[in-house]
Structures are given as C-alpha cells and as structure tokens.
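Honest question from a wet-lab person: if I give you the sequences of every part of a complex, can you actually get the arrangement of the whole thing, not just the pieces? Trying it with mine:
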Amino acid sequence: MSNSRDETPSLDEAPILHVDLDAFFASVEILDDPSLRGKPVCVGGAAQRGVIASASYEARRHGVRSAMPSVVARRLCPELIILPGRFGRYEEYSRRFHRLIDDLTPEFEPLGLDEAFADLRSLRRLGIRPLDAARDLRARIRDELSLECGVGLGRNKLFAKLASKEAKPQILDGRLVDGDGVLWVSPGLERTWLSELPVRALWGVGPQGAKKLHQLGLRWVRDLAKVDEATLARHLGAAMAATLVAYARGEDERVVMTQRELKSLGHDETFAVSLTTSDQVLAHCRHHAGVVARALRSHALVARTISVVLRFDDLDSLSRSQTLSFGVDDEAALSALAQALVRGVTIDRPVRLLGLYATSFLERTRNQVQLSFEMETPTTDRQRAVDESRDHQVSAAALRDAVDDIRRRYGPGSVGVAADLDSQGLRVERQRGSHAFGPERPAT
Ligand SMILES: [Mg+2]
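Yes, you can. This is the full assembly:
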C-alpha cells in the first residue's frame, strides 16, 4: 500500500483522527519491568484454555497474535512469557492517554482502553493542520507515556482506523519493519486502499463473518463493492450487509461521540422495588425509550444499535443488543426493539436495574433521507403526505425485519412484537446512500 507522507491535508480532507497504542498491555508490563524488554512477552491466560490478550512485537515475530489460544502461542514460542494482566495499571495509563487526546480536542471518543477517534474540526479556529496535530499527539504519547502508537487520518472513521493500523510496525517474514507512525489516506488513494484490503480488515468483520464471506467467494473489499446488497443481506442480515456495502464504497457515516455524549444517550434506572414480571419490564422499556429518543433528537442523531441491560437482585446481569441497517430516533421504534430484546430473556429473578442504550450513531440528515427515496422534492402538501406515508411503510417493514432478526437470535420469546408496530407513528431513517430495504428487499 502506498501512503501520502508528503501531502498535507486540510481539515476538510482529514477531519477524523484515529490513534491506537501499540501492544498496549504488553508494553505497560515492559515499562514496569524493564528486564522484560526484548523478550517475547504476552498478557493473557496462561492456563490450558487461556487466550492471548496482548503480545509484544518480539512475541509477534514468532507468530503470536492476540486472541490466539495460549497453548498455540506457546507452541510457536516456547520461551514465551505470559503475564496475568493488571487492569488497574492499564486503566491508569489509559486515563493518561485520554488526557493527552483531550488536550488536543475534547471532541474524542475512547474505544476500549488503548484506542480513540477524534474529530479535528474543532481545531479549525486555532489554525491547526491535521498532520501537525497527529504528529504532536504521537510525540507526546511517546515522551510522556513512553508508549508507541499509530495515528491515522481520514475523511471518515473507516479510513482513519485503516490508516492507523497501516501506520504501525509490521512483521514481515519474521522481521519487524517500522511503520510511518502517522498516515493519511488521501482521496486519490482511498479506492486503491479499499481494493487491496481483505474483508477481514473491515470494522465489524470477525473471524466468523470473514468465514461466511469467504464461503460466498468474497475475499477482498473490492469483491464486496460488486455484490448485490439484497443477496448479501440474505446471508449476513440486512444491517451487516448495508454496513459492508457502504464501507466497500468508502462510505462511513458514523460520527465521533464524546464520552459525555455517549453517557447522555442511554438511560438506566435502579428500581426501589425490583420488577418481578415481564410486563413490568416491558412497560419500563417504553418509558426508557422515550427518554433515549428525546436525547437522540436533541443531539440530531439516529442510532443503529440498541442495547438493553438487565441486572438482577443477585447482581448477575445480562445484555442484549441489535444493530439495524438504518438509524432510529423514534420512541415507538426504540420501544419495540427494546421490548423484542427483553422478550428474549426469561425473567426468572427480580430485576433490579433496566438500562436502554443507543450507539452506532449517524447524524440525522432528514433532507438527504428524503432524497434517497426519490430524486424529487415534494411541492405540495398532498405530495408531502404521500411521501411521508411511503416513508412510514418502508420504515415499519424495516423495523419488522429487525424484530424478526432479534427473534431468530434470541428465541421465540420475542414473537409478537411486530404486531405492535402498525398503529404507531414510526419514524425510522435510512442510512444515507444505502440501498433499498423493506418492501423492495426480497423476502428472506
Ligand atoms: Mg492497540
């Protein structure tokens, strides 16, 4: 892959930054115990069924990777040192890492302990250029935390994250090759980058997803760009298909959400008297949906992932979530989805806490959504009414698909929810640029 070291993008060309610390857990262990330096060090489970969580580059030279069973890792590298992990210590480093990003801009979204996205557009009035911001951040992380990282810049989250990965050191034929540290995917290179990437490199494609795609003959992102979305939806579900087809075109509408904003877009409640029946939990879902829907609309956002969390009196908790091929900000839709998720759970113990969370945000772009239905502007009230009713129809069908999906995943307990939808004034938005779904999508 080529890179664009010598070009200097403007904020409009590279508004999104992604930073990812190298071998984070293992690096912190080596910092705290310098005698480990240069040795193959991992953090993970050393027991029979343990898994590697983080591997130093020295360990990676032997083929050791995170998520690999420790047994396999030891076979590859018999002298491998596997440490149990000290999460309190990693959290300390993570807080210091977040503070450095916060110094650059408060508009950042932490992703786990060692990654973050930042929206650099807030730097416009300071006259700071993206590449300078990225290089400064990397230098401060090195100077003040003694940690290495890759920083990527791009037009959207998709490209920023791909770039940070490419900016890191790589192992080639057992040799460690330095990366560029900071990388920007220029518009001219976007297409080349995407076409050369394996599907596995895309956000959301895990080992299982990759296997499925391979079985369909889709190995490369360029293959995805040619595939029919409706066909893909039959194999992967509508949400995943829409996401992957958009990514293959270089489109990613996800916005950077600060932690404060993320917190405000969920609602949970610990009950004074625990709930004991399914009906009580369902009723509270409706209430929670109203709170979350209002928060979403006040941020002009729609959410593609809806999660519910239940905590029981014995403090055991469980969560269920569903990702959609469209974004919602509507109380009735949120409520229907939350209830479908809850119906898949057996309420066999008193429920102490119920949480409803919205994530995977898109900016609400009402006009673009209207345009994506048909390239015409409603001129009369009558026309507008016709458009809105069509909008409603498509939305209800899409929502029914999503509820069906939940039922497939979480069992027949969630049956019957779709029937609740018809009478309600649903407002479900399509992702900009996404293909047809709902009535136009063949039945699966
Ligand atoms: Mg990392």
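Two things worth pointing out. Residues 284 and 354 are 8 Å apart (CA to CA). Confidence is low (pLDDT under 50) at residues 1-5, 366-379, 386-393, 414-444.
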